[in-house]
Design brief:
Layout: H1 13-33, H2 38-45, H3 49-77, H4 79-97, H5 103-118, H6 121-132, H7 137-166, H8 168-188, H9 210-214, H10 217-246, H11 251-299, H12 308-334, H13 339-368, H14 372-391
Helix pairs in contact: 1-6, 1-7, 1-8, 3-4, 3-5, 3-13, 4-5, 4-6, 4-8, 6-7, 6-13, 7-8, 7-11, 7-12, 10-11, 10-12, 10-13, 10-14, 11-12, 11-14, 12-13, 13-14
Length: 401
Amino acid sequence: MNPVSTTSRFDERYLIVLGACLTQFTVIGLLFSYGLFLKPLEVEFGWSRTLLSSGASVAFLVMGVLAVFGGRLVDRYGPRLVLGVAGTLCGLGYTLMSQITASWQLFVLFGLFIGVGMSTHDVGTLSTIARWFDKQRGVMTGVVKVGTAVGQVAMPPVAAFLIAGYGWRSALIVLGSVATVILVAAAMLLKHPRSGRSTGRSIGTAGYSFREARRNRNLWMICAIQFLFFPTLMTVPLHIAVHGMDLGMTTALAAGLLSAMGAASIIGRLTIGTAFDRIGGKGALIGCFIPLIASLVALLFIQTASFLFAVVVVYGFAHGGFFTVTSLLVAERFGLRAHGALFGLVLFFGTIGGAVGPILAGWVFDVTQSYAPAFTALAVMATMGLVLAAMLPAPEGAREG
């Protein structure tokens, strides 16, 4: 049965989208929830926020380093095996984190389990979606990234409830165990389309090879843009909850900040995904940068907890948009032949900055008792990214292999 036939009683691509959504929901929902564990860990062990932020940063760095390798594996072997193994490691990492007693254990678990598990969640799912959808690629990528946003909305309140009711160790056991089951089940739904079935041509040969793309200036401009905005996307979600607590919020109310951010990002993902199909990558990128910069500047002046909700809504729109646009931008300019590897390379540059951002933000707070210098630096980097985005030339079009 042709998976895209209009007369088909069931379009198997819906299962692909479901599996991708569940993967995004779980991996990023867990990542967002980690910010709620900072206070309990700080209280129990006396660890600084620099140290606690560094754990997550190790995961970001490992994710970036392995994203290119993971993308190549997905290109070659398909998403099912790769995401199944990665999902098991990710869930197991959170479960084992419940047993930590020393700071070095935090780094080992984030580096060897959670970071490895995170390294394929984007390249595996979004490259698969790009291969299954042609004309609706932007919209469907946005739909998949809505799974991320739903995770951001739903999982922090669950984590807060578990922490309050059962303690942080039990909360991690429950979250990690459930995540493992969901991620393995989601991986089983994913696969690459058979050659030519989804687009009427050979999926494996359309576009630039990895070597050809590396000689294209546009690729390095996109990598630089990713480097400039990605630190914000890693720093704000990690620190915004504890920042709200510093301003007087309860844990439950601070979890609401993350949920509000996730809800706003749903609108951002769908809006930017739809806009991409109409105006292309350059316009979509600019549409993400403007609210991002506005929200970072606003954070410099917010001293009341209640106003944080308005700011995180604006930020959330941009956050969701950025996580939708990158895969599409790579496909638009370089095709699908080496999409997983090229997307992984772009993510690598982003996670270099993303790994450093949370650590510096935590260090800045430890030294100054304020996040203002960190928000200022992030706003400056985002402004530089906007300038580069405005300088992107029109896409040349993906070549046929």
